[in-house]
UniProtKB/TrEMBL annotation:
GO terms for cellular component: cytosol. This is formate--tetrahydrofolate ligase. Its EC number is 6.3.4.3. It comes from Callorhinchus milii. The keyword Ribonucleoprotein does not apply. It is an enzyme of class 6 (ligase). It comes from the Eukaryota.
Length: 863
């Protein structure tokens, strides 16, 4: 291979590894690289190559190394997309296979072919003997000459039959081939001719320029890949069975694509994912920077009517819809769903991967632990809780001087404030950085948060339904010196840190939000934050991986982001802003992102618009409202539906009156969506006991009530094929013009915002605040939090605060028992009635059916 030591590149880089380099700018943004050789260990070399593979500014990488250093491991550590030397196994394999549009041809081989072309000897059927070429050059020459229709034979210098091979062949002749060996009429190409060609190449198109051509081609391919286009996603085939097997049996029967394969299909770069095993991967936030100039796709929100305790299948519809869009209509589509809590997984409702033939797979991994995000939230939450009680104890048992000496210790003769302590001093308006210069009064203000224990709102959390943790007593050990107080546990997904994860738009924003968490008030009525406690940086460290959405796939191989998991009845109930933003960029302008809001439209959808859309700046194009005949019959006066008990005949036999009466709840939920200016498509999640007459009646009433369309969906039994009609309706509706209208102005008083939601969404006559709730409202206004949106904590089983009231209750007074503030997340949340933030286990929880086969290690009983 010939290298002339000069590289001039107009709009992309290629990088020669193995030499130190300096860069000097040339005209038009070109780069001139000057190098001197250095030796390094193989491990260092591979590490450097891997770093360059991930650098989007470098489009070509050449290994200018001694032959001994070019091991297979080193060569193949170069990503094929940047292998402009064409020597990796992947590129050579593509060349040999004839896929010239997908590979890079080694520049030296290209130069030889140009020589032969100039000599006018490239004749179909001619025999060519290649002497002395090895490795990638030999393979490339053979492949290129065969593509020209020539017959190639290779030989090395020590070959015993070299003389015989030389006869009657076209020869790339080096010195050492005797003239008498050559048969009359053979074409001879000598090194003199090669040298002349190379001189010509240096003047016109040197091998360096061939490198550049490959690099330009690499850059061009990269640019093409960044452009919005239809994905080349290989759909996984479904073979639905009847009767439909259990969810876990269906999930286990399908073999998912390797997550790296799916990532590549949807346009993710290798350096943008962090694999967690074969089936899931974290996606780095750098994706948003790379795609920031790209247009967003269409945005679809899946909500529902007021559900039964069994749930009405919003997750199943979400998954079925993206399977239909992606696997059957060929449209780029992404589902964005929440990570399930282990509370319902082992409690009543079960998992949240969807169901039947519309699932996220593998469903065991989806429902159990996933990538540990909820555990990270639990750790961060409880670290903050521990910091509160520890600070109260230390302040109560130490003098100002002792506290100061421990908070700002002298280490190796140096005493200095940490960055978070300097930030606290700034908030205290103390403009000093030398610990020795603070006055006694400044020291006292600095070291004493003076937390009022009666105002602590921050609770410990655990991701288990445990009713006996709803009220506990802490500090009973003698080592806590009598500092005993009542506290409680919430379920982990109710943590404000979960809400922050779902609403943040990046690491800097998350860090700021974590610092803004208000955990209590001091004795002067001023808020005490996580940053005051000095713990916000540590919280961010615990959350640094959890902030990245997790990539998984559906049963039919379409992509899914799983991220965040706040409950909708005690938090805002939506998946993350970051997942939605990433997905919208990846699908492109004509693609679709489908996300789900928890529980009924009055709960999750209202919070989606008033909280999530305000935080993200993203507005949906259409709302899909999920209904079931079962839930409509319940709202029409049917018997109570109870988890674990068989349905009565009213639900298993046709009953048009119950359906018609229950459609009042459907009509109310359509009306709520219209309050926000959104077109609504009603999706009827079909069960095997539903009749055509019942389904037709619901479709008719829905359309008469203002729905854009109403369709039945059979994704549970048929996968995406059973939801194609819904997908087509969504595609039509998304192209209609819609404008989001928020329900209230943030400048309204807190009480008026609560009243607006109660009256316009729930249908209440009015609200009634307890004295405690009113005093909290007054305090939050005084502290400057009055302009935040409202996140109602209310039962999801009724439009009212009373779970037993079905249909569309009216004339009720909505009781506000308490009001709390999630300042880091950015909302005020009133607690309605007896709403609890820690669920309990039923008489027969799901865990009775869940087990592990000790021989196969397979999980049974999950649903």
């Amino acid at each position: 291979m010939f290298f002339f030591g000069r590289v001039v590149i107009s709009f992309s880089f290629f990088f020669f590894l193995g030499r130190k380099y300096t860069c000097s700018r040339l005209a038009h943004g070109s780069v001139f690289l000057k190098r001197c050789f250095v030796f390094c260990l193989v491990e260092q070399l591979v590490d450097e190559i891997l770093k360059l593979n991930e650098d989007p500014k470098i489009h070509g990488l050449v290994l200018d190394l001694p032959i001994g250093a070019l091991s297979g491991r080193v060569i193949n550590s170069v990503t094929p997309e940047k292998d402009v030397d064409g020597i990796t196994d992947v590129n050579l394999g593509r060349l040999i296979r004839g896929d010239l549009s997908e590979c890079f041809v080694p520049p030296a081989a290209s130069a030889v072919l140009q020589l032969l072309d100039q000599a006018d000897v490239l004749t179909v059927g001619k025999k060519v003997l290649i002497i002395g070429a090895t490795g990638s050059l030999e393979a490339a020459l053979q492949a290129l000459l065969k593509k020209k229709g020539m017959i190639t034979i290779s030989s090395q210098w020590l070959s015993k039959n070299l003389k015989e091979l030389v006869r009657a062949k076209l020869i790339l002749k080096p010195e050492g081939i005797l003239a008498e060996w050559i048969k009359t009429g053979s074409t001879i190409v000598t090194y003199d001719q090669i040298t002349k060609l190379l001189q010509w190449l240096e003047l016109n198109m040197s091998i360096s320029l061939l490198f550049e051509i490959n690099t330009v081609e690499s850059s061009s391919r990269w640019i093409t890949n960044q452009q919005r286009k239809r994905w080349d996603v290989r759909a996984l085939k479904l073979q639905p069975l009847s009767p439909v097997p259990s969810d876990i049996e269906i999930s286990r029967a399908q073999t998912p694509k390797a997550i790296e394969v799916l990532a590549k299909e949807i346009g993710l770069l290798a350096g943008e994912i962090e694999s967690f095993g074969r089936n899931k991967a974290k996606v780095k936030l750098s994706l948003l920077e790379r795609l920031k100039e790209h247009p967003d796709g269409k945005y679809v929100l899946v909500a529902g009517i007021t559900p039964t305790p069994l749930g009405e299948g919003k997750s199943t519809v979400t998954v079925g819809l993206v399977q239909a869009l992606g696997a059957h209509l060929g449209i780029n589509s992404f589902a964005c769903v929440r990570q399930p809590s282990q509370g319902p997984t082992f409690g009543v409702k079960g998992g949240a991967a969807g169901g039947g033939y519309a699932q996220v797979i593998p469903m065991e991994e989806f429902n159990l632990h996933l990538t540990g995000d909820i555990h990270a939230i639990t750790a961060a939450n409880n670290l903050l809780a521990a910091a509160i009680d520890a600070r109260i104890l230390h302040e109560a048992t130490q003098s100002d001087k002792a506290l100061y000496n421990r908070l700002v210790p002298t280490i190796n003769g140096v005493r200095q404030f940490s960055p978070i302590q300097l930030a606290r001093l700034k908030r205290l308006r103390v403009d000093k950085s030398d610990p020795s210069t603070l006055t006694p009064g400044e020291v006292s203000n600095f070291v004493r948060l003076d937390i009022d224990p009666s105002t602590i709102t921050w609770q410990r959390v655990v991701d288990t339904n445990d009713r006996f943790l709803r009220k506990i007593t802490i500090g009973q050990s003698s080592t806590e010196k009598g500092f005993i107080r009542e506290a409680q546990f919430d379920i982990a997904v109710a943590s404000e840190i979960m809400a922050i994860l779902a609403l943040t738009d990046g690491l800097a924003d998350m860090n700021k939000r974590l610092g803004n968490i208000v955990v209590a008030n001091n004795r002067k009525g001023q808020p005490v934050t996580a940053e005051d406690l000095g713990v916000s940086g540590a919280l961010a460290v615990l959350m640094k991986d959890a902030i990245k959405p997790t990539l998984m796939q559906t049963l039919e191989g379409t992509p899914v982001f799983v991220h965040a998991g706040p409950f909708a009845n005690i938090a805002h109930g939506n998946s993350s802003v970051l997942a939605d933003k990433m997905a919208l960029k990846l699908v492109g302008e004509q693609g679709f992102v489908v996300t789900e809001a928890g529980f009924g439209a009055d709960i999750g959808m209202e919070k989606f618009f008033n909280i999530k859309c305000r935080a993200s700046g993203l507005y949906p194009n259409v709302v899909v409202l999920v209904a079931t005949i079962r839930a409509l019959k319940m709202h029409g006066g049917g018997p109570n539906v109870t988890a674990g008990k068989p349905l009565t005949k009213e639900y298993t036999e046709e009953n048009l009156k119950l359906v018609a009466d229950g459609c009042s709840n459907l009509q109310k939920q359509i009306q709520i969506a219209h309050l926000f200016g959104m077109p609504v498509i009603v999706a009827i999640n079909v069960f095997k006991s539903d009749t055509e007459a019942e389904i037709d009646l619901v479709c008719q009433i829905a359309k008469h009530s203002g729905a854009y369309d109403a369709v039945s969906c059979n994704h549970w039994a048929a996968g995406g094929r059973g939801t194609v009609q819904l997908a087509e309706a969504v595609e039509r509706a998304a192209n209609e013009k819609s404008t989001l209208s928020f329900l209230y102005d943030l400048k309204l008083p807190i009480v008026e915002k609560i009243r607006t939601i109660a009256q316009k969404v729930y249908g209440a006559k009015d609200i009634e605040l307890s004295p405690e709730a009113q005093s909290k409202v007054d305090l939050y206004v005084k502290q400057g939090f009055g302009d935040l949106p409202i996140c109602m904590a209310k039962t999801h089983l009724s439009l009212s605060h009373q779970p037993e009231r079905k249909g569309v209750p009216t004339g009720f007074i909505l009781p506000i028992r308490d009001v709390r503030a999630s300042i880091g997340a950015g909302f005020i949340y009133p607690l309605v009635g007896t709403m609890s933030t820690m669920p309990g286990l039923p008489t027969r929880p799901c865990f009775y059916d869940i087990d592990l086969d000790s021989d196969t290690e397979q999980i049974t009983g999950l649903f």
